[in-house]
Automatic annotation (TrEMBL):
Enzyme class: hydrolase
Signal peptide coordinates: 1-30
Subcellular location, record wording: Secreted, Cell wall
Protein name: Pectin acetylesterase
Record's keyword terms, sorted: Cell wall, Cell wall biogenesis/degradation, Hydrolase, Secreted, Signal
Main localization of the protein described in the UniProt heading: secreted
Pfam families (alphabetical): PAE
Function: Hydrolyzes acetyl esters in homogalacturonan regions of pectin. In type I primary cell wall, galacturonic acid residues of pectin can be acetylated at the O-2 and O-3 positions. Decreasing the degree of acetylation of pectin gels in vitro alters their physical properties.
Membership in a protein family: Belongs to the pectinacetylesterase family.
Natural source organism: Panicum virgatum
Length: 419
């Protein structure tokens, strides 16, 4: 058996690019527009806002820099009306780097340098300014904090030999303090969101965000909640009997100086690598959290369950590309992975303040894509006739308790499968 093999960053990036490409072809138009149902079943176009980037030059003095030493950045679409005192903070995702070699590759891209980031980006799904698409959050202040540290906003180290900064934790602190200074300090409501590595970052930073809003005597307390999308990475055994993701995460944690940023409630009882896995953190969170995840997460299937190095014969290659190509044995392993995910949230689900939406889809990241966020017929996956946007809104506003866990594949016919 092949134990402890590390999936390479190029392989991970290729998977992420493939997933993004599939999602975009299936769920978005060529132009930045959202498509929603109008009266009489007709469909109309709602333009998505292209939001310009803000470079936070002042953060450099605090050592809060991207991998190449450039300043961190964010995109802000201001709220309006009743939403002007409410804020969504979205932590951008985009893989990790686990070695000097792989981090050098990221350093010269928008995932390691603000010099290479897109100067404006579309806000879609939960970030959309369209009331039809995003009825509960459309008029909030919506911020995307750009990802350029390679470690889920959690590292604090510097590799002098390679000239690479790992300052994710400092970026997090600097951007949050800046947003507080420009109006977020008076917020009535705050929601921290993120997808993939950003979804993992949400879990790591949820209670940290809450600490920025201490109780104020004689005034109403700010409501702070968190939504992790596609961030429930499992410490799972791969098909060779090894733990590929544990080896990969272990390298990231050590290289980037992440242990000091991990929750003390976890590191007091477990090693640092274990505390980078959400399943070992979520039960101790004090801040309300909603976990949105596909039970058959396509990134985890390729990165954790059946990475190429654990599959030298290539027997899983077809299955990882097309679920219909999976044989009975492979499907049994996938069902076991799904059951492990469901088991990992059992304790978490006992808290009335927490929410869950675990779909039986072969997907990844469902809150920022129109096709999986929107409530229109044929849009979002549904569990018990309720879609993702409605489920998240009901949970945030305490309209209903949401503990939605789908039955096993292929029972759900509302999924948008991307493999």
């Amino acid at each position: 058996m092949m134990r402890g093999r590390r999936p390479s960053l190029p392989a991970l990036v290729a998977v992420l690019v493939l997933v993004a490409s599939c999602c975009c072809r299936a769920e978005t138009s060529a132009s930045p527009e959202d498509e929603v149902s109008g009266g009489g079943g007709r469909r109309r176009r709602v333009a998505s806002v292209m939001v310009p980037i803000t470079i936070l030059n002042s953060a450099v003095s605090e050592g809060a820099v991207c991998m190449d030493g450039t300043p961190p950045a964010y995109n802000l679409d201001p709220g309006s009306g009743a939403g002007s005192r409410s804020w969504i903070l979205n932590l951008e995702g985009g893989a990790w780097c686990n070695s000097v070699k792989t981090c050098r590759l990221s350093k010269g891209t928008g995932r390691g340098s603000s010099d290479h980031m897109d100067k404006e980006i579309a806000f879609t799904g939960i970030m959309s300014s369209s009331r039809a698409v995003n009825p509960d959050f459309y008029n909030w202040n919506r911020v995307k904090i750009r990802y350029c540290d390679g470690g889920s906003f959690a590292g604090d180290a510097y590799n002098k030999e390679a000239g690479i900064y790992f300052r994710g934790q400092r970026i997090w602190n600097a951007v949050i303090k800046h947003l507080l200074s420009i109006g977020m300090a008076s917020a009535d409501q705050v929601l921290l969101t993120g997808c993939s590595s950003g979804g993992l970052a949400v879990i790591l930073h949820c209670d940290q965000l809450r600490a920025f809003f201490p109780p104020a005597a004689g005034s109403r307390q700010t409501t702070v909640k968190c939504l992790s999308d596609g961030g429930l990475y499992l410490d799972a055994m791969d098909i060779s009997g090894g733990r590929s993701l544990r080896s990969y995460f272990g390298d990231i944690v050590a290289l980037q100086g992440i242990p000091q940023s991990l929750p003390g409630s976890c590191t007091a009882r477990l090693d640092a690598t274990s505390c980078f896995f959400p399943q070992n953190i979520i039960n101790d969170l004090k801040t309300p959290m909603f976990i949105l995840n596909a039970a058959y997460d396509v990134i985890q299937i390729s990165l954790s369950l059946a990475p190429d190095r654990a599959d030298p014969s290539g027997s899983w290659r077809a299955c990882k590309s097309n679920r219909s190509a999976c044989n009975a044995s492979q499907m049994n392993i996938l069902q076991g992975f799904r059951d492990q995910m469901v088991s990992s949230v059992q304790g978490f689900s006992q808290s009335r303040s927490n929410g869950l939406f675990i779909s039986s889809c072969f997907a990844h990241c469902q809150s920022e894509q129109l096709g999986t966020w929107n409530n229109v017929p044929g849009g979002s996956p549904t569990i018990q006739n309720k879609g993702i946007a409605k489920s998240v809104g009901d949970w945030y506003y305490n309209r209903a308790e949401v503990k939605a866990i789908d039955c096993r594949y292929p029972c759900d016919k509302t999924c948008h499968h991307i493999m």
